[in-house]
Prior knowledge:
Two copies of one chain form a homodimer. The first copy, chain A, is mainly alpha-helical. Helix content of chain A is about 60%, strand content about 5%. In chain A, strand 1 (about 80-85) and strand 2 form a beta hairpin. In chain A, helix 1 packs across helix 5 (about 100-120) and helix 2 (about 40-50) packs across helix 5. Chain A is globular and about 60 Å long.
Amino acid sequence: MRCLDHTLRTLTGYRLQRTTSTAMAEFNRVFAVHGLRRTTFAALTLIVETPGMRQSQLAEALAIERPNIVQIVVELEQAGLVERKTAKDDRRAYALQPTATGRRVFERALAQVQPVDRAITAGLTPDQVAALHKALDRIEWNVRATGAADDFEVPRP
Amino acid sequence: MRCLDHTLRTLTGYRLQRTTSTAMAEFNRVFAVHGLRRTTFAALTLIVETPGMRQSQLAEALAIERPNIVQIVVELEQAGLVERKTAKDDRRAYALQPTATGRRVFERALAQVQPVDRAITAGLTPDQVAALHKALDRIEWNVRATGAADDFEVPRP
DNA sequence: TATTGTTATACTCTATAACTATA
DNA sequence: TATAGTTATAGAGTATAACAATA
């Protein structure tokens, strides 16, 4: 046995988490420079590219629950990157609009994160990166298709 | 543009986290059946396969900081899966030993997690899974090689 | 009755700083 | 003084339950 965690490394799930956990620390640093977190950057990206979005759409696009969006949007608003305007057609909802500053910060943060993102896949060919993306998407799809089916019960030991 | 998060999906980091986050929820469920969390399962695996391990070795092998190991080992000990015996050659350290129950629970949990782990990569060929593992390892390696070098400064905007 | 946003709360994973008891 | 384990604390990411306002 070469490595202490040989058995764990047979599990795709273990490798996924270990790699992701390591890589996310790197992205945290990049975004922190812009006063952002990974989630606020992701939200800002969507708001810049789809102005007028609702918070619930944001939640669905980012695949996180609505309550988690509140703090994210509050942060972006307080930082002056996003404005919440009451939607004219539905007074319950907010239309999320990027400010000019928000667009600028987004562009800068994106420009800084792109080389970091490329750096983490250094040594992989474009084809290999594409294959990685495809594999990751497939896993996500598999889990949503299978795991969401809470009909099926894991047998108790 | 097909998808709201088109730009985010150009980033390997975004896909990594999104997929991992989704998949980990699935693993949480499996391990919960055995009274385990992902981290306690990982620790139990190492202790079963390398009896006598120290907590600091555990921390290094799992790539997490030592303070985080304490709660993990306490949990395993309270569940009767692991014993902490004072190392005879160093009274500061513990030799971590799996109990008979610990070995049994490990075997059962592993047997249950393996099909789930295979299920998340359903539709991928063994070669594609191997390529995925290689890519993930490479990313982890890249980040440790690059990001650990805190000599280099991200320029302030 | 259903949906939008919200509050309150909690759990997991992880990190840093500073302590203790050995070595 | 350095190391093994510990305590205390914090922060990020995520989830669920229940509520108000509006549809």
